[in-house]
Automatic annotation (TrEMBL):
<keyword id="KW-0963">Cytoplasm</keyword>
<dbReference type="InterPro" id="IPR000192">
    <property type="entry name" value="Aminotrans_V_dom"/>
</dbReference>
<comment type="pathway">
    <text>Cofactor biosynthesis; pyridoxine 5'-phosphate biosynthesis; pyridoxine 5'-phosphate from D-erythrose 4-phosphate: step 3/5.</text>
</comment>
<feature type="domain" description="Aminotransferase class V">
    <location>
        <begin position="4"/>
        <end position="348"/>
    </location>
</feature>
<comment type="pathway">
    <text>Amino-acid biosynthesis; L-serine biosynthesis; L-serine from 3-phospho-D-glycerate: step 2/3.</text>
</comment>
<keyword id="KW-0028">Amino-acid biosynthesis</keyword>
<feature type="binding site">
    <location>
        <position position="42"/>
    </location>
    <ligand>
        <name>L-glutamate</name>
    </ligand>
</feature>
<feature type="binding site">
    <location>
        <position position="102"/>
    </location>
    <ligand>
        <name>pyridoxal 5'-phosphate</name>
    </ligand>
</feature>
<feature type="binding site">
    <location>
        <position position="195"/>
    </location>
    <ligand>
        <name>pyridoxal 5'-phosphate</name>
    </ligand>
</feature>
<dbReference type="GO" id="GO:0006564">
    <property type="term" value="P:L-serine biosynthetic process"/>
</dbReference>
<comment type="function">
    <text>Catalyzes the reversible conversion of 3-phosphohydroxypyruvate to phosphoserine and of 3-hydroxy-2-oxo-4-phosphonooxybutanoate to phosphohydroxythreonine.</text>
</comment>
<keyword id="KW-0032">Aminotransferase</keyword>
<keyword id="KW-0663">Pyridoxal phosphate</keyword>
<feature type="binding site">
    <location>
        <begin position="237"/>
        <end position="238"/>
    </location>
    <ligand>
        <name>pyridoxal 5'-phosphate</name>
    </ligand>
</feature>
<dbReference type="Pfam" id="PF00266">
    <property type="entry name" value="Aminotran_5"/>
</dbReference>
<comment type="subunit">
    <text>Homodimer.</text>
</comment>
<feature type="binding site">
    <location>
        <position position="152"/>
    </location>
    <ligand>
        <name>pyridoxal 5'-phosphate</name>
    </ligand>
</feature>
Amino acid sequence: MTQVFNFSAGPAMMPKAVLEQAQQELLNWQDQHTSVMEVSHRGKLFMEMITQAEQDFRQLYAIPDNYKILFLQGGARGQFAAIPMNLLNKKGKALYLNGGHWSATAAKEARLFGDIDEIDILEQDETLQVKALDLRDIATQYDYVHYCPNETISGVEIFDIPDVGDTPLVADMSSNILSREIDINKFGLIYAGAQKNLGPAGITIVIVREDLIGNARPATPSIWNYAVQSKSDSMINTPPTFAWYLCSLVFKHLLALGGVKAVEQRNIAKADLLYQYLDQSGFYRNKVAKANRSLMNVTFTTDNDELNAKFVAEATACGLQALKGHKVLGGMRASIYNAMPIEGVEALIAFMRKFEAENRG
């Protein structure tokens, strides 16, 4: 196989067109005969770039005017702490919906800042399936309800938005942001590390409703205080300028493809192709209920650890990179984020057929 396809869960592959443009502009950005990494983040050209980036992102995700967009640092883990520092301020309690590793990790961090209740929303029989998420009766006692719509490790995605009434809903969309259309108005806050669908590692996007800003606890460090960051254009310190620039190129690239609606159709086609093959195969198995299969992270196994290891090694040699499953779960995982072309999925299936034919007992 001459072409390499990167199935890494993150940092993940980026659009080739974006990388090529960045390569062309690396030594001469905006005719400045220097790179974007070397100009002032408060200079006219950089400020124009980030202003346009926000406008493009708003257009892509149909973000209403009463939401602020912050470009921060610290990754999703940083937001695990920032969210309770900013939002756990009136009732002193928050509810975390545990759908897997990352939602549980977020709840653990939040307990450092207040009273956190946790509900397990997964049914784990023969397959992983998400329970009904009508939480209106209990949500009123909390400052916010938090969940992770896409768990990268298990390959579980929650397509139905939890019903929490008027309580702010907080979502960690690090692994599925911009992958499909959503109604932003149903959320109080959305956050995402960039390194899967937005750009490179090093920058984190927070979409937060304006009425939730300005109530941070007094001890909140300024770098985590949404009000401070909002007033400072996300730049109370020097931001990750190159990562911000690359995100701006990704936004323009997605708009050129037709926006999130078109991207969603591509993602559905890729995922359907791979899941259809898995379902007809008696050799591989996916352990997630069909209603909750992730469009972004497809997990599968042969149910044999030695065969799984052999699969990963031979796939890597064939140019299919980073298919080893997370250490928590094992098996294999194909992360097929926005930048993964359908040709990558087709190449993976072709290898899977060959491997099955050669290793079926």
